[in-house]
Design goal:
The complex is a heterodimer of chains A (480) and B (217). With 480 residues, chain A is α/β, with parallel strands linked by helices. Chain A has 3 domains: 1-47 and 324-412, no CATH class; 68-307, 3-Layer(aba) Sandwich (Rossmann fold); 432-479, no CATH class. Chain A has helices at residues 13-24, 27-47, 51-70, 72-86, 96-109, 121-126, 128-134, 144-151, 168-178, 188-205, 231-237, 258-270, 305-308, 325-328, 331-336, 347-358, 360-363, 375-379, 386-398, 414-427, 430-442, 454-457, 468-474; strands at residues 89-93, 114-117, 138-141, 208-211, 215-217, 222-227, 241-247, 251-252, 277-281, 295-301. In chain A, helix 2 crosses helix 12. Chain B has 217 residues and is α/β, with parallel strands linked by helices. Chain B has a single domain (33-193, 203-216), classed as NagB/RpiA/CoA transferase-like (Rossmann fold), CATH 3.40.50. Chain B has 6 helices and 12 strands. In chain B, the strands form 3 sheets. Chain B has a 6-stranded parallel sheet with strand order 1-12-7-4-2-3. In chain B, strand 2, helix 4 and strand 3 form a beta-alpha-beta unit. Chain B is globular and about 70 Å long. The N and C termini of chain B lie far apart (55 Å). The relative contact order of chain B is 0.18. The chains are: A alpha/beta (480), B alpha/beta (217). Bound molecules: iron/sulfur cluster. Iron/sulfur cluster (SF4) binds at residues 320-326, 349, 379-382, 384 of chain A.
Chain lengths: 480, 217
Amino acid sequence: MTRSLPENRGRSDVRFHTGVREALNDPQIRANFRSAMDGLIHKRRNAFPDPAALERLRLRSERIRANALSRLPELLEQLEQRCTANGIRVHWAETVEQANEIVLGIMRQHDARMLIKGKSMVSEEMGLNTFLEQQGIECLESDLGEFIIQLVGEAPSHIIAPAIHKNRQQVARIFRDKFPDIPYTEDIEQLTRNAREILRKRFYQAPVGLSGVNFAVAETGTLCLVENEGNGRMCTTVPPVHIAVTGIEKVVERLADVPPLLDILVRSATGQPISTYFNMISSPRRPGERDGPKEVHLVLLDNGRSRIYEDPELIATLRCIRCGACMNHCPVYTRVGGHPYLATIPGPIGSVLEPQKAGLDRLGVLPTFSTLCGACGEVCPVRIPLPKLLNRLRYEGVRKGSGALPGAGSRRGRNESLLWGLWRWLHTSPRLYRAAGRLATRLRHLLPNRLGPWTRVRKPPRIAARSLHQLAHDQEFDHE
Amino acid sequence: MSKARDNILSRLRTARPDLPGGELEKTASPPSSTPNQRIEQFRSHLEAVRAEVYLSGRDEWVAELQRLAQEKRIGSLLYAPDGPLGSAISKGWDEQTKPHLKWFEQEIDNWKEPIFFDTEAALTSARAGIAATGTLVLWPTVEEPRSWSLVPPIHIAVLDTSHLHDTFESLMEAEAWHQGMPTNALLVSGPSKTADIEQTLSYGIHGPVQLIVLLLQ
Ligand code: SF4
């Protein structure tokens, strides 16, 4: 499920470029993403008919998330205290290794050989499936999209619609190969029913269920889950044990913060007025109650988030509510899909978040997966200035010396920095600038035909015989 | 693991950036609506996601429910004899015709198999409704456990129109939810659905395939 990250810089960008080229040359991928993203953009637009009301809701949602971050340590303590009082066991993990060990420990305590999972991007971040399978524990994805791609050992290509890179014929063929007893169908409704039948038995048997968390409410110790399929409810209701995994940034202060966030999350993500289910879990089965898990565990994962927290600008990354709107609107993501990002979360937010976690030396190329068109920042429901953060990370990658960010400065190349040094020198002295301009027009024929990647698919630029200054001078313009 | 806890918290404490806190203003609440507007809004949202909504009188709903269930060829119906709908059902149900009523006693271990593989439909009450989104609000109880509205293919919910609120926010405030949450609170806004294949909407994945709402007035 999880792919290994490229080790470090040097030629490692090549892996990304290869992935991008493969995706661009695959007409199926381009068609699947184009039509899916167009659909999502359209649905979102219809879900917010009043632009002024949308802006008010975005402002409010931003404040709610920013407020929660400004009090993060206190709120985490309050969350822990409320959850514990409610009977939920709270675990803390600084790294994904620790988080995986915590889950494994719970599985072992119950002698459980199988885990049924609702959709959880944090479990993807942890590489939980691979880890548990190495320990002989089966992990079964139950979200339809995750289920489909798990059958063929692929990673999600979108955070909300993980199998968006497959069309119905591809899904039908996967089902035929994996479940030869079920009659072949390309009908989407029938494929859905088939998955329902296969997974029911598994929900029935599963000893432990795992889920993510959309919002964790400090005030009441409540874990909130947004979903349409009902698999999240199944995973958190039927098995005797429920494990929820979440990043430490998902906490909100008050229960009253939840309705506006839920509203803007669902409308931004899929354009629905609300998701089919909103599941609020505040405790395990209480005495006298007749179903629900007897144990609920909450795993709070840091994995680099507290480091992102240190930077007054980059901290905005942690406001994200994972709606996916930034990727739906991204011209780069729409053309290549999620896989070439080689990271858990793709798209603009992935390009901002993942290099901060893994280091710019490993994922520093991701901030260049952007045209800086600004669409992501405009649609983000919590107003994360994504283009600004992408720019900042580009700078951190090539900066002189090292900053607080892991891998800062690692993308600085000698030739490139020399060239920019020269550029700055020329542009800060009018005399030098004029001399260089004259020289460039005179020697324009010496410009080589190949200029790195630029000329792979384009003609090289040609320097004009006369500069704009000279032309203006000839026309007798007053000032330069 | 408490070392991890202390490390994380102390990192956050030392690193805390200077962030503007400030008051959170509320978005202007929509102008309050009449009961009929709420009913219409509630119904049209639910019907848009393929749920069925029927208006019924507070005295006739049991007979209507039984007629409806017969029409849908439901053979047996899971209900809670001790739940809020129990006494009305036992008084008004015609035992001679279908569907047969059934119920489960004790804990899920005793009825996990029948609820998964041998229960066509379940009836539960709804605590409240939200007009703005067409949403049922359930707080499952000892009598009406949370899996009943989830596992059987058909879920029938009964909601009194006097419990319809405008928005989730206004409901939460009116009922002071923050003062005490149940084990599980649920918002249900239609039968289960997915768009994971080609972004095409398809109903009946893991939760109920059909959602039927009886609105009492
Ligand atoms: S960055 Fe904003 S738009 Fe992107 S997923 Fe997060 S909340 Fe949504």
